[in-house]
Amino acid sequence: MACKQRLLQMNELDEMRRESYESSRIYKERLKLFHDKTIVQKTFEPHQKVLLYCSHLHMFPGKLRSRWTGSFVVKVVYSYGVVEIENPENQKSFKVNGQRLKPFLENFDRQESSEELVDPLYQDVPSG
C-alpha cells in the first residue's frame, strides 16, 4: 500500500515538473515575441551618412555629453548587420555592428515659431 502511494506521489511530482517546464517555455516564447516587436530594423545604404555610438563614454557620465560621434559615410553593408563605414576626414574605414549606428539627419530644418507673450490679467476672486 505504501509503495503504491509513494509511486503515485512520484508521478504527481513528475507531472508538476513537466507542467512548470511547459509554462516556462510558453512564457519565454511570449517574452521573445514581445521583445522582437520592439526592435526596430535599421537599413543602411552605401554613401549614407551615419553617426556612431561611443560606448566608452559611459565611464565619464555627463548629462550634456553626446555619446554619438560622426558623421561617417557607409561604404559597404554586409550580411548579419555588419556595416563598413569610412571617416571622411582621414579616409580610414572600419567595420562596426549596425546596431551602433543611426542615420545622420543632414538637412534638418527646425521650424521656429514665435508667439507674442502677454501679461495675464488678474481678477479679484470674490470671497465667500
Structure, described:
29% of the residues lie in helices and 22% in strands. The longest helix has 37 residues, at 2-38. Strand 3 and strand 4 form a beta hairpin. The chain has a five-stranded antiparallel sheet, with no helix packed on it. It has 128 residues and is of the alpha+beta class.
In a few lines, what is going on in this structure?
With 128 residues, the chain is α+β, with helices and mostly antiparallel strands. The protein has 1 helix and 5 strands, in the order αβββββ.
Number of helices: 1
**Strand line-up of the largest beta sheet:** 4-3-2-1-5
Unreliable sequence segments: none
Tell me roughly what share of residues is in helical segments.
Answer: 25-40%
Alpha carbon gyration radius:
30 Å
Report the count of strand segments: 5
> CA-to-CA gap between the ends?
86 Å
Query: pLDDT average, as an integer?
Result: 85
Beta-strand share of residues: 15-25%
> Which oligomeric state applies?
single chain
Order of helices and strands: HEEEEE
Describe the largest sheet: 5 strands, antiparallel
Categorize the overall geometry: flat
Indicate the topology.
Elements: H1 2-38, E1 49-53, E2 68-77, E3 82-86, E4 93-97, E5 101-103
Antiparallel strand pairs: 1-2, 1-5, 2-3, 3-4
Give the tags.
alpha+beta, flat, 128 residues, 1 helix, five-stranded antiparallel beta sheet
